[in-house]
Design brief:
458 residues; alpha/beta; 8-stranded parallel beta barrel; 3-stranded mixed sheet; 16 helices; 13 strands; globular; disordered N terminus; binds beta-D-fucopyranose
Length: 458
């Protein structure tokens, strides 16, 4: 998609009243300070130090947000966002995963949350964005049924500490992605390729979700609770009938195996037999707790192809040769985003917040240090247009968070793939708002102006 729409804000600027504009990040991807103030190791520290990340990158320093968080709040103020979605690093507040809490780690999030509130930015706290304490992984991590209780205890610590100030909690970020990549494909930590381990992890993460919802309700009764799911169309590579089963299996594992039990009370029928051996009576009631919103992360469609040697009989497929793709090769179809929003809203019957959407690139600053990321602007323009159309078509979408505020540690590809609307020079830590950041600032401003001058829907 080279037809970047320039820096022009959308002509149609009417959005629902109280629509929330935000930015997202996650702990391991931005914080750094990996060994500071008593933080324990996470599974991603271990994976990165095993050299499993491109270019040998690690999250040891990342964006150094741990020290620069005030500056980052200042950037958010400049952008004019309403909300900031971040995650708490479990091993920073509980270095061993359980037991004695780490006061300096807890105090960091006090400072962050207080700073956000002072700036008039609503904190959206996600409890788990993939950085499991290594000691818990050594005990079997999510393959252990006890992990649901470990997570509930960790949740209690976090909610007790911040529940007076934080009113939005998400239990998990993309459970389908971290369980599939981490337990069945070795694309992420802890790095197994084991269908049984994966099936167990799915069920235990679902139990952990339900248990955490109960803890949050008991300790912060006025809080609004959700879970964040990655949903994208899954298409058979080359549109081949021989890849159709592969695409269906990936669809169930990617799009359904978490939200369906959590919200609708049942596993997808094709996957239920794989989970059944680990289910006990009463589990579904524990998983399916009332929640307040659906967090949707969306980038673009994904592709599958048959591979009988793989854990679930599928492998990652390629996008068609003529597909529009981003610099990092992800397919771009804004129309599918519109369809996904409508379907998610209808199927689950919850208000939807787009908790991630964004465009990866290899953008480098010009000699003057400016970053004119027109392709990202084009992507964001088309996707916010598609979201606007979905709302007009009846999808109950209440907010949108760009991934990401900052260029950061992009998991397996390290620092090479950049998603920020603010660039980070990883040598100096210097931040600079990109053209896309200025575009977003104008979009937010325009949407408010339009609302104050003409509150009727267009
Ligand atoms: C999502 C992850 C997020 C980031 C983006 C690009 O799957 O939740 O941490 O890596 O992809």
């Amino acid at each position: 998609m080279n037809d970047a729409m320039g820096a022009k804000p959308p002509a149609r600027a009417l959005w629902p009243e109280n629509f929330i504009w935000g930015v997202s990040t996650s702990s391991y991807q931005i914080e750094g300070a990996a060994k500071e103030d008593g933080r324990g190791p996470s599974i991603w520290d271990v994976r990165s130090h095993l050299g499993r990340i491109d270019h040998g990158d690690t999250g040891d320093v990342a964006c150094d947000h741990y020290h620069r968080y005030r500056e980052d709040i200042g950037l958010m103020t400049q952008l004019g966002v309403d909300a900031y979605r971040f995650s708490v690093s479990w091993p920073r507040v509980l270095p061993h995963g359980r037991g004695v809490a780490n006061e300096p780690g807890l105090a960091f999030y006090d400072r962050l949350i207080d700073g956000l509130l002072q700036a008039g930015i609503e904190p959206w706290l996600c409890l788990y964005h993939w950085d499991l304490p290594q000691e818990l992984s050594d005990l079997g991590g999510w393959t252990q049924r006890d992990s649901a209780d470990w997570f509930a205890d960790y949740t209690a610590l976090v909610v007790k500490r911040y529940g007076d100030r934080v009113k939005r909690f998400a239990t998990f970020n993309e459970p389908s992605v971290f369980t599939l990549f981490g337990y069945a494909m070795d694309w992420g930590a802890p790095g197994l390729i084991d269908r049984t381990a994966h099936a167990k992890a799915i069920h235990h993460v679902n139990l952990a979700h339900g248990s955490a919802v109960d803890v949050i309700r008991a300790m912060a009764p006025t809080a609004s609770v959700g879970c964040i799911h990655n949903r994208q169309r899954v298409l058979p590579e080359h549109d081949l009938a021989s890849n159709a089963d592969a695409a269906r299996t990936l669809h169930r594992l990617w799009n359904e195996v978490f939200p369906d039990p959590q919200i609708l009370g049942a596993y997808p029928a094709e996957l239920a037999p794989f989970i059944a051996p680990y289910e006990r009576s009463g589990d579904m009631a524990r998983i399916c707790r009332p929640i307040d919103w659906f967090g949707l992360n969306h980038y673009g469609p994904i592709f599958a192809k048959a591979d009988p040697s793989a854990a679930w009989g599928f492998a990652w497929g390629k996008a068609p040769a003529d597909a529009p793709v981003s610099d990092i090769g992800w397919a771009i179809y804004p129309e599918m985003f519109r369809a996904e929003l409508i379907e998610t809203s209808r199927k689950y019957g919850l208000p939807v917040y787009v908790t991630e959407n964004g465009c990866g690139g290899h953008d480098e600053p010009s000699d003057e240090g400016d970053l004119n990321d027109q392709r990202r602007i084009g992507y964001l323009q088309h996707h916010t247009d598609a979201m606007h159309a979905a709302i007009k078509d009846g999808a109950d979408v209440r907010g949108y968070f760009i991934w990401s505020l900052l260029d950061n540690f992009e998991w397996g590809s390290g620092y090479a793939n950049r998603f920020g609307i603010v660039s980070v020079d990883f040598k100096t830590g210097q931040r600079r708002i990109k053209a896309s950041g200025h575009w977003y600032r104008r979009l937010i401003k325009e949407s408010r102006l339009a609302l104050s001058t003409n509150p009727a829907p267009d």
